[in-house]
Design brief:
eight-stranded mixed beta sheet; globular; about 40% helix; single chain
Amino acid sequence: MKALLSCLIALIVTHSLVAQNLNPIAYQDSSQKFVGLITENINENRSAVLILPAWKGIDNEAKQAALDLAKEGYVAMIADIYGVGNVPKDNQEAAALSSQFKSDYRLYQDRIALALNHLKKQGIDTNRIAVIGYCFGGTGALEVARAGFRVRGVISIHGGLARDQKRSIGPIYPKVLVEHPAADASVSKTDFDNFVAEMNEAKADWQIIQYGNCGHTFTNPEAKDYNHLMAGRAWQHTLLFLRELLKIEE
């Protein structure tokens, strides 16, 4: 009887995790409205992950990551970086819009800070938050570190590593993981080497994992560069890093 009861409880818990949905979460600054997405398992005793999406805004890869993180016990929120009414229609618009934020890195940092603050309003302390980002969002994750935000850590997944060399290098508080496809044509050797030098000068706790035979968007099933094997490894590396950073309490 006890064994049967244990099985039923396990099935109920498993079902509750699998059945997670993503709900809209609205916030704004003085001039722009934003609508992100957040998992249903909001609880102030949980740790949380803020997801920064790729250059087209909130996409299927970010949504799937949020749902998968909820299954692991995390609250997951996908940030809306561009704002309502500013979703790119195609790659050309996405390139133009994301370039503005890469150039104006302070604006990018401000938009991320806005999302972080709204996540904290759900009752989750900054010390229980990590940030991950894909592509353009991976660049954003590194801007979180460069801005000195007091989150536990950041993960940049096939993100841009370049930094204007005129920018000063300050201390970096979050732990940094970069998941880098070795054949990413968008990241030059100079940018790679400069990033390593930046992390060392900032005395950061950092690491780079390179994935062989992988092009830029190797974790996205909808992209031509998708590599199922390496994407699976990268996800396991993500979970391992998050487990180090964040303690889950049910």
